[in-house]
Amino acid sequence: MTPKAVIEKWIEAFNRADAGAIAELYAPDAINHQVANKPVKGKEAIREMFAREFDTADMTCIPEHLFEDGEWAILEWRDPLGLRGCGFFQVQGGKIVFQRGYWDKLSFLKLHNLPIE
């Protein structure tokens, strides 16, 4: 599966708030490092992170651009509340091995009436 195809499946699972389906797209030792958070290491820890996040807030990923370059996919996204972000996904053997994301955490917390850390 191409990196772009993997991320298209990731978007579908994200928009269903399906942490299990998202986790299946990651390699066992994958790393998900969102710029505003500490890196999350391992498929199970990534599943737990998404499960917590889906329990905390309703989130929707509206893709604006999805690019592919070799083993990398780059996703520029927005959500219905006006937040924007970008994710970089390294895909090897049809699985995400590394993800780096950029988004405005403070605006996210304020829009969802969540406590500011």
TrEMBL record:
Q: Where are the transmembrane segments?
A: none
| Domain (SnoaL-like): residue spans on this chain | 7-97
Q: What is this protein called?
A: SnoaL-like domain-containing protein
Taxonomic source organism:
Parapedobacter defluvii
Q: What is the lineage of its organism?
A: Bacteria, Pseudomonadati, Bacteroidota, Sphingobacteriia, Sphingobacteriales
